[in-house]
Amino acid sequence: MKILLTGANGYIGMRILPQLLEMGHEIVCAVRDETRLSIDKETRQQIDVIEIDFLEEPKENVVPKDIDAAYFLIHSMSSSIQDFDEMEAKTAENFNKHVADTQIKQVIYLSGIVNDNNLSKHLQSRKNVEDILYQGDFKLTVLRAGIIVGSGSSSFEIIRDLCEKLPVMVTPKWVLTKTQPIAIRDVITFLTGVLGNEKTYNDSFDIAGPNVMTYKEMLHKYAEVRGFKNWIWTVPVMTPKLSSYWLYFVTSTSYKLALNLVDSMKIEVVAKDTRLQDILDITPHTYKEAIDLAFKKIEQNLVISSWKDSMISGRFVDNLEKHIQVPKFGVLKDYKQVKISNPEKVLERIWSIGGETGWYYGNWLWKIRGFLDKLSGGVGLRRGRTHPNKIFAGDSLDFWRVLLADKKAKRLLLFAEMKLPGEAWLEFKIDENNVLHQTATFRPRGLRGRLYWYSIVPLHYFIFGGMIKNIANQKNTNQ
């Protein structure tokens, strides 16, 4: 089958793509920015890519007419606090228009469980998208999932952050709300299982794991699986806004996502429909098994995708290509170079920068900067990186965004997503003479931006000087 995969660079899209290719399907990936599609060259050669912004009215027919089916995996919950529901509705309406002139037979939409009449804004938006998609000229299959647990999923990473960092917690009363988590592996199995299955046409199904639990029980079970104890007390006085700040400062989530999550966590999300398990003969994994599977992927460095790599996890709103050309005029720079003897080893160290590895010099200063960024509403350092030594354009890297990662050209270019009175780039490049060039570029925004730069010049002298020296000498200096 020829399949249109929307949201191809998202958490679910990146997981289902290799499965669909393995099944022998022809895939067309629809993304807003092709440079952000974080896949290896081998996979890229097996697919077609088209650029579509579903928030905009279709101007030309870029979707192939011979599409047989499509996955609708687009959502905007993390990109806005006020109007994400309007954005999600618009994407669904424009999607219907984009595929109107094709031979498409089935659309598969991953939604959320909506069995309660009193829905959160997030779940009401998902239900509204269902209604819009049902108006399209195709057969719709809706899978309504509970909390998704898997390596790199936002739910799993939040639970992980809370349990690993806070053995003792004073929590809002929404931790007593019941939910029904599902393993990411089962989500993908359900999504691929309904493809072309006429028994699932024009119908909606709940998908969830076998365990109905409160969020508090999920936190306790995580600690049990990981071999430690945690203590949790609930208080009734924590407002949704305070709860959101609590999640934002303790975990790696953004404030926008935290606020929308808290709004949803007040609503019970329990599956009342298990028909699809019988239709596809699937037995979902338990919550404990889902945690075990997630850590196997983490320990083997096989995390395919992470919600943190989504553009909405930071403050980046433009296409990457708009920032790849580093400005030369009206900027301030810190430039250093050093001759190296083993370019391949140096390149590996550059490709491993950030995350658990750190920044090779003054890591405690980087952590302070990340903490200050978090206090000011920025992303901080908690996003880390998805893989210890692989980088793709569009990936998040602590409080940077990867603009370009070209190992063949021996060049890595990062753009700062921290809160700054200006714009900042950090570039590493090894030339044909085995000289490592390290350039920090800052385009200040007015007088405040210039004052900021000059106030930290002494720190730059030590940090950037120590960093290039330790990268070039292959020393492990995590000071």
From TrEMBL:
GO terms for molecular function: aldehyde dehydrogenase (NAD+) activity. The lineage of its organism: Bacteria, Pseudomonadati, Bacteroidota, Flavobacteriia, Flavobacteriales. Signal peptide: none annotated. It comes from Maribacter spongiicola. Keywords: Membrane, Transmembrane, Transmembrane helix. Residues 7-148 form the NAD(P)-binding domain. The chain crosses the membrane at residues 451-472. The keyword Membrane applies. GO terms for cellular component: cytoplasm. It comes from the Bacteria. This is Uncharacterized protein YbjT (DUF2867 family). InterPro entries: DUF2867, NAD(P)-bd_dom, NAD(P)-bd_dom_sf, NAD(P)-dependent_oxidoreduct.
